[in-house]
Amino acid sequence: MTEATERVDGRRSAGQRGAGAAEGSGTRRAAHGLGMLRPRTRSEAHWAEEQQVIGPGLQAVMLLARLCVAEADGAELTDIDGNRVLDLQGAGGVNSLGHAEPRFTAALAAELRRAPAGAFGSAARLDMTRALRAFLPEGLDRVQLYSGGTEAVEAALRLAKSVTGKHEFLSFWGGFHGKTMGSLALTAGARAGLGPLPPGYFSAPYANCYRCPFRLRPESCGFACVEHARDVIKENSTGALAAIVVEPVQGRSGNVVPPPGYLTALGEVAREFDALLIADEMMTGFGRTGAAFAHQHEAVRPDVLAVGKGMGGGFPVTGVVAGAGTMAAAPFSEPSASSSSFGAFPAACRAVAVTTGVIMTDKLVDNAAQRGREMLDQLADLTELAPLVGDVRGLGLALGIELVADRHTREPAPRSVVQRVYLELLDAGVLVMLGGNTLRLYPPLNVDRDTAGTAVDIIRETLIGFGGVR
Questions:
Q1: Is 115-361 CATH 3.90.70.10?
Q2: Would you say the pTM of this structure is higher than 0.90?
Q3: Residue 32: what pLDDT?
């Protein structure tokens, strides 16, 4: 089977898998009752029937796994054949409260029984505003709601244009901001075959110290990437830079954590060019990194936040957050100029209210910080024990394990190898997210020590015992 065919067909037969799903992982599966132990005949038939109507272009990890979920609870999924797996994919950071959190499901069920369609004033919206007032960073006190991440990013770009009267944007290699026109133009490396981009968008290298494009070391580089970004603006801009758009932790590239001070330095560049700093915290916001918002790990305050994923606990709701003065800029502030068809529907507001409330009540930001440190410590020695592992990194419960073909050259592991690892982990009982050649881990923010430890044990066993890099 060719790699191209493998990508379309998703799963391969057991005989085609590497030696990594071997005796050790089998023991772990038996001990915890996890993993693909039962034939998946019902799942395969279910998946095949769905694909008679569903269009192509689904997420690659979904096409690989072909999971058909019967029920979910906390950090665990059960497929329709009765197989159980720990969900560290978490829909890329969406599953902040765990699956079927009782307070969340009860609140949403009650809201759906009474909620009208439409963004009217409602008890749900009032409760949401009260919860957000206690949770949002100081000075970022206004929110406008949307239904998808790319929609919120596009709104943030319109807001920056309204505030500055300018129209150019700087983003960064390896970032991801969406798939509509403006957000796609921000997303370097994901534009092939889609024709010309809007003018006024340019990009620079991100502070990925494991793969520094300047071949420098972080302790002595003097933020060469920031200096290069400054030069990119000077050489490419027409003097109309509206904003610098950056993820505090880059998700798509494998949860890349920049060195301390990077965001602060970018904020200084933004001010130098009389532009805004937009933090795309779609993945990192609402506690994911062990802070309420990832930019709070250093002393910087962005002008605008794009938020989503974890803020709704599984309900599709996103938002743009800014200060009152910023949000008041026209034309963004004019009637209907920044609205969304489904923005601020009562069900969406209730999802945000209850999710934010649970995060605060249960101290899930602190739990994410503690569990994340523990998991990172327990995975760190894979760079010595597992030949396939080049780097282990993360912040809070946004973790990355980068797979390489050669540790010395840091040549990325081939796609086929990354897919084999993904499937062997799934067979062993852990579902992860992928990002290029990196395994991305997004446990629920309320994951307990035992569950996190079980997942780490399975990941360690699988990667240490993996048979074959090529």
A1: no
A2: yes
A3: 64
